[in-house]
Design goal:
alpha/beta, OB fold (Dihydrolipoamide Acetyltransferase, E2P), Rossmann fold, 7-stranded mixed beta sheet, 7-stranded parallel beta sheet, 25 helices, 22 strands, 40% helix, binds adenosine-5'-diphosphate, binds magnesium ion
């Protein structure tokens, strides 16, 4: 027998077939159960009426009772707006609609009494209301007069078909009345009593119609817990299954490759953080399970070395290793660094990218199959089908977000026992996000820079300071340093959009004239050979200034560069600013980052610049970024959609997320395959949402 929550929404009192169609199309609500999960987006106090004269701030949502005394349409076509005057005993205000106003115009009768609900805006020194809710005051209104009334978000289109916020409340009342004793519990009884949260049925009733603020808070916590818990349960289950089913090679020994490198080739001692991470990796490699580890560490924290030492362990155990980078430049740089570090160790390393010649490629393929080539470094070219390893034991992936899960999986197929996987990223991801996005990976963090590194000093300047900035640059060049000047160009393939960069180049050229000063310019419209040759000139100190777009964000490593000037810095996102700043401060000298901005700054823009000036800690910056933008805009989250998070926030609910993860762990430790009878509600819930999980796993 179908469950009452699966009843099609058109059978709910007050809906019917045509309005049901509207709900399906506009809100993706198909059943009673879907409707139940359409949570209020706020709670409003409708026990009190304000008077027009009382309005003194923009902040609160309030309701007024009064008469519409006039109505007119101003302007024509798309930009027209509908303006009503609304008056009570104390004064007059305006109600404004910009679009979708036709149905309101038809419905409202001038002279009648209405209840208006909305948020006042200050406009030209007076308060008005845009797109308020408006209902006849004599409407039978049993749902009014409550201090914590649910308020459902709706649109003008929905309102025009009767889905006003007030009607939503009525509809929800009917729904709850019908289903409140039939809402299935989703957690096991033991978990439910351990988390000390209300039953799901109780929580869902209270989320719509809370008795008091405490009941509401507890209901919200319960719903959020479910959202977070089931994501974690699913992620961890995948991980447990993988660990159970997929065996890893056991790299039991540390041999001569690693030892010789460690004792003879390593030019410095490892930082504490590098040591800690190496321990974690060694434990994984020796465990008999397949390693899937995410290594996070700021630019310059020494991830490459960790990658190399891990690869040497693979070699010591008779396996091959590969390192995959997102761009050719980066791959080439890794190849150079790693070859240099290995020096005279008997290890064969090769580079394979899209531009490797066919003849050389054939040789590589041959050697890989034989096993004489031990470390392969490259780009996507590595996952091409022809590339067959004799025995691939470890894959290192640099800058993970550019490699999809599917691509990772293809690497697995390259050997019978899947290789261990180490994913490295310099884009710090806040813990809450990492737990959710990469919840199936183990996470290691290098949270310490090599000693002697001076944090980059960061300043924020306006246009009026430009001469001061240029003088500073002159001094730095006189000291033998090099300078970057970076412009925000969004669409580099558009000639027009490159104009600010060209203008900037002119300005810089005028102040730093030939022949004393040589300037490089690099942007996305240059052919890659031109780009490389310009970068090379800069690298070889033939030019002192590099004027560029963000194409220099990854790849270049010029330790002698000590100043990063970022023009229109307010237009960059925080993580990009942080990445750009990471281009300097790579040598022993004090480096500087100068953020130039216009005077007009949004609150967020100001906060971004302040944050950059205040800290160089990538994790702290990532946290601020998460708070400013919300997780939806952060890299990598769109694909995953952060499924099912309607109420829970990765920004605000970190504590609850940790609890949820801990309980998911406990549940699976106790019953890895969720076979126990008492865990069946959870299995059913996971199955019910199976479609969504596909997006994250
Ligand atoms: P990442 O890839 O994390 O941005 P790199 O691996 O490129 O950083 O390291 C940055 C620089 O720091 C390199 O020049 C590297 O040789 C150096 N380095 C790495 N580890 C140490 C260490 N323990 N002590 C001193 N220098 C180090
Ligand atoms: Mg690196």
């Amino acid at each position: 027998m179908p469950h009452i929550l699966d009843t099609p929404i058109e059978y709910l009192k007050g809906i019917g077939p045509s309005r049901a169609e509207m709900l399906r199309k506009e809100l993706d609500i198909h059943t009673f159960g879907d409707m139940l999960l359409y949570y209020p987006f706020r709670y409003v106090d409708r026990s009190k009426f304000y008077s027009v004269a009382e309005i003194d701030s923009e902040s609160a949502w309030i309701q007024l009772k009064g008469r519409v005394t006039g109505m007119q349409t101003i302007g024509a076509g798309r930009v027209s707006r509908l303006v009503m005057t609304f008056r009570d005993q104390t004064g007059e205000t305006e109600l404004v609609w910009f679009q979708g106003s036709k149905w309101i115009k038809d419905k409202i009768v001038v002279g009648r009494e209405y209840i208006v609900f909305g948020k006042p805006n200050l406009f030209n020194g007076r308060y008005n209301f845009t797109h308020p809710d408006i209902e006849p005051a004599d409407d039978e209104a049993p749902v009014l007069n409550e201090p914590l009334q649910p308020y459902y978000s709706t649109s003008e289109k929905l309102k025009s078909r009767g889905f006003t916020p007030r009607n939503f409340v009525r509809i929800m009342r009917n729904l709850i009345g019908q289903v409140q004793y039939s809402i299935p519990e989703t957690l096991s009884q033991s978990l439910l009593s351990a988390v000390k949260l209300p039953a799901r049925g109780e929580a869902l009733v209270n989320i719509h119609f809370p008795h008091d603020p405490q009941a509401l808070a507890r209901a919200q916590d319960r719903i959020k817990f479910d959202e977070l818990f089931f994501i974690q349960l699913q992620l961890l289950r995948l991980k447990y299954v993988r660990m159970e089913k997929v065996h890893g090679r056991v790299f039991g020994q540390i041999g001569s490759h690693f030892n010789t490198f460690y004792h003879q080739n390593l030019p410095f001692s490892l930082t504490g953080a590098q040591k800690k991470v190496m321990k974690e990796i060694r434990a994984d490699l020796g465990s008999g399970k397949q390693m899937n580890r995410l290594l996070q560490g700021d630019v310059g924290s020494g991830k490459t070395l960790v990658a190399l030492m891990s690869m040497l362990i693979a070699l010591d155990n008779g396996c091959q290793a590969c390192l995959m980078a997102p761009t050719e430049i980066l791959a080439a740089q890794h190849f150079k660094t790693i070859s240099g570090m290995l020096h005279d160790l008997p290890v064969e390393v090769a580079l394979l990218t899209g531009s490797t010649k066919k003849s050389a490629r054939n040789v590589l393929h041959q050697k890989l199959q034989e096993g004489s080539l031990q470390i392969l470094i490259g780009t996507h070219a590595l996952i091409e089908d022809q590339v067959q390893f004799r025995d691939l034991g470890l894959v290192v992936i640099d800058e993970q977000h550019r490699f999809g899960v599917a691509q990772r999986a293809r690497l697995w197929e390259k050997s019978e026992i899947p290789p261990h996987i180490l994913v490295m990223t310099a884009t710090p991801i806040p813990r809450t996000l990492a737990m959710t996005l990469y919840g199936d990976l183990d996470v290691s963090v290098i949270d310490e820079l090599p000693p002697g590194r001076k944090p980059v000093k960061t300043y924020h300047f306006f246009e009026k300071d430009r001469l001061k900035v240029f003088r500073f640059i002159k001094d730095q060049i006189a000291m033998g340093r090099q300078i970057y000047v970076v412009y925000p160009i969004i669409n580099e393939s558009d000639k027009l959009e490159l104009q600010p960069l060209m203008d900037g180049f002119d300005t810089v050229s005028r102040y730093f004239p030939l022949p004393e000063y040589q300037i490089s310019i690099v942007h996305g419209q240059l052919k890659s050979a031109e780009k490389e040759s310009e970068m090379k000139r800069f690298l070889e100190k033939k030019t002192q200034i590099m004027v560029a777009t963000t194409v220099i964000e990854v790849g270049v490593d010029v330790p002698n560069a000590s100043v990063m000037v970022i023009e229109n810095a307010e237009r960059f996102g925080l993580s990009q600013l942080h990445q750009l700043r990471g281009r300097v401060g790579r040598g022993a000298d004090q480096s500087h980052c100068i953020l130039m901005s216009s005077y007009k700054l949004t609150a967020d823009g100001r906060k971004r610049l302040e944050t950059m000036v205040r800290t160089t800690d990538g994790f702290e910056i990532a946290e601020v970024d998460l708070h400013l933008r919300g997780p939806g805009d952060l890299q990598g989250t769109q694909q995953s959609g952060l499924v099912g998070l309607k109420l829970a926030s990765l920004v605000k609910d970190e504590k609850l997320l940790k609890i949820a993860r801990e309980f998911a762990h406990r549940t699976l430790t106790d019953d890895p395959e969720l076979r126990k009878e008492e865990n069946q509600p959870m299995v059913r819930y996971l199955q019910l949402n199976a479609n969504d999980w596909g997006k994250i796993s």
